[in-house]
Amino acid sequence: MADTHRQSRWTLPEFLAWEEQQDTRNEFVDGRVRAMVGGTRRHNAIALNVASFLSRRLRGSKCAPYGADMKTVTPAGNVRYADVTVDCGPMKGDDIAATEPTVVVEVVSKSTSYVD
Q1: Closest Cα to residue 72, out of 25, 37, 2?
Q2: Which of 96, 79, 97, 99 minimizes the C-alpha distance to 88?
Q3: 3 state DSSP class of 13
Q4: How many CB atoms lie within 10 A of CB 21?
Q5: Which of 58, 60, 2 has its CA nearest to residue 33?
Q6: According to the model, what pLDDT value does residue 108 have?
Q7: Is 30 left (phi over 0), alpha (psi -120 to 50) or beta?
Q8: Which of 114, 112, 107, 115 is nearest to 42 (CA)?
Q9: Helices (H), ranges, the chain
Q10: Going by C-beta distance under 8 Å and a sequence separation of 6 or more, which residues neighbour residue 69?
Q11: How many CB atoms within 10 Å of residue 79?
Q12: Helices (runs of H) and strands (runs of E) counted in the chain
C-alpha cells in the first residue's frame, strides 16, 4: 500500500501487513497510521533505567521487560509501541507483539503527552 492510503481507515490485518514492509515504526490508532518520532537523550535514559530496574526485579519470573520495539495490540485493536512493556505470556523469539502485556510504561514528553 502506498503512503497516500495512510489517511483512510485501515483494518488491523491491513496495517500489520503494511507495517511489516516499512523501515520505520508506526502506531495504529483507531484505524489510522501514526508515524513514530524519535526520542531525546533524556527520554531514552529514563526508558532504559526503567527497563533495567524491571529486568533485575523480574529475574527468575515468567515475566520480562521489553524495549520500544515490542508492539502491544490493545483490546480495541490499536497497535502501540510503549517505551517499556512487561510481558508475562509465552514468547517465541520471532513474536512481533507482546502476548500478555502486564505493565506498559510510556515516558511522556511535552510534545506527545496529549496522545500518550
Answers
A1: 25
A2: 99
A3: helix
A4: 7
A5: 2
A6: 87
A7: left
A8: 107
A9: 12-19, 41-58
A10: 25, 81
A11: 21
A12: 2, 7
**What are the pLDDT digits (tens) for 70-111?**
999 999 999 999 999 999 999 788 888 999 999 999 998 766
Give the span between the Cα atoms of 64 and 85, in whole angstroms.
8
Longest dimension (CA), the chain: 47
Q: Name the pTM for this structure.
A: 0.82
Q: Encode burial over 36-72: b for 16+ CB neighbours within 10 A, e otherwise.
A: eeebeeebeebbeebbeebeeebeeeebbbbebebbb
Q: Which residues pair with 66 in a beta bridge?
A: 85
pLDDT tens digits for 41-61?
999 999 999 999 999 999 999
| Nearest of 49, 96, 101 to residue 75 by alpha carbon | 101
Q: How far apart are CA 85 and CA 78, in angstroms?
A: 15
- Give the Cα separation of 91 and 99 in Å (integer): 7
Among 114, 1, 108, smallest CA distance to 47 is for: 108
